[in-house]
Amino acid sequence: MLYIVATPIGNLKDITLRAIEVLKSVDMIACEDTRHTKILLDHYGIKIPTTSFFQHNRFTKGEYLLGLLKAGKNVALVSDAGTPGILDPGYNLINLAFENSMEVTAIPGAVAFVDALVLSGKPAHEFFFAGFLPNRSGARQNRLKKIAELKCTVIFYESCHRILATLEDILEVLGDREIAVARELTKKFEEIKRGKVSRIVQEFKSKRPRGEFVVLL
Ligand code: SAM
Predict the structure, then answer these.
(1) Fewer CB near the last or first residue (10 Å), C or N of the chain?
(2) The total number of structural domains that make up the chain
(3) Any ligand 1 atom below 6 A from CB of 215
(4) Is the Cβ–Cβ distance between 5 and 30 less than 8 Å?
(5) How far apart are CA 165 and CA 105, in angstroms?
(6) Is 90 in the same domain as 122?
(7) Cβ of 33: how many Cβ atoms within 10 Å?
(8) Taking the model in full, what pTM does it have?
C-alpha cells in the first residue's frame, strides 16, 4: 500500500492519530526532505527508515519506491508541510503507483490554503486555488488579469521574498480591493491581515514580512 500522509503545516500537534499509526507501521517513509521530516518523526518516536523523494529525483526514486511496493512493502509519502501532492512532486508517485495497479490511500490532514480560507472569512462555497503565481512581474501581472475574471475567492501561495512585489502587482492590476493575507499558520507568529491591498502593502513596507504566506482575493 502507498499511504499519502498529511503532516503539520507548522504546529507539530496538527497530525492525526491515524497518520502517526501509519508512519509507525510502514516499511519506508518517502520524504520531500528527510532532515525536515526527521523533526516530526523524532517528536513522535518514529524510527522507520526514510528516503528522499523530491522534484529532482522524482523519476529515479519513483521507480525505486515502486519496486518496494511491488515487493509487497508499505510506503508512506510525506511532504515538508501539509498534504503531499498539493504543490509538490507527490502526484508523480501517486500516478506511478496507480499506473502499476498498486493500492493507494490517503490519510487526510492539514492543507495551508484550507486553513487560510476558513480563517480569512472570505466566501468558501466557491473558490479557485491558483498555486504559486509566476516569479517574474510581467508574467505575474498577466496571470492576475486572468484571475480578475473569476467570480469567486481566489487563493494562492507566496514566499516572504516575493509577497511585497506580488501585493504591489495586485494593487496595480486589480486595484485597491479587500484581500486577506495569512502568515505562519498554526505557528507561534500566526497572523491574518484583512483589508485594502494598499494598507497591507504599507504595513509590510514598514515591517519586513517574514515566513510563509497565503493570499486570498
Ligand atoms: N503541501 C502544502 C499544503 O498542503 O498546503 C503546500 C506546499 S507549498 C510547496 C508551500 C507553500 O505553502 C508555502 O510557500 C506557503 O505559501 C504555503 N504554506 C505552507 N505552510 C504554511 C503556513 N504554516 N502558513 C502559511 N502558508 C503556508
Answers:
(1) N
(2) 2
(3) no
(4) no
(5) 39
(6) no
(7) 14
(8) 0.95
User: Residue type for 143, please?
Assistant: R
Residue tagged 498555486 (cell numbers)? 131
* Domain region containing 174: 112-216
Look at residue 73 and tell me whether its pLDDT is greater than 90.
yes
Question: 123 and 66 in one domain?
Answer: no
The cell 518517502 sits on which residue?
30
Per the rule left: phi > 0, alpha: psi between -120 and 50, beta: everything else, 208 is beta
Query: Is the CB of residue 71 less than 8 Å from the CB of residue 101?
Result: no
**Is residue 85 in contact with ligand 1, taking CB distance under 6 Å?**
no
Predicted confidence (pLDDT) per residue in 24-66, tens digit: 999 999 999 999 999 999 999 999 999 999 989 988 999 999 9
**CB within 8 A of 109, min separation 6: which ones?**
5, 6, 7, 8, 14, 15, 16, 19, 82, 83
Q: How far is residue 96 from each of residues 63, 93, 107, 148, measured CA to CA in Å?
A: 8, 5, 18, 36
Please name the residues in contact with 1: beta carbons below 8 A apart, sequence gap of 6 or more: 69, 74, 75, 102, 103, 104, 105
Confirm or reject: Cβ of 180 under 6 Å from ligand 1. no
150-172 residue pLDDT tens: 999 999 999 999 999 999 999 99
Q: Are residues 97 and 53 in the same domain?
A: yes
Q: Which of 58, 117, 157, 167 to mutate to test the pocket of ligand 1 (most atoms within 8 A of CB)?
A: 157
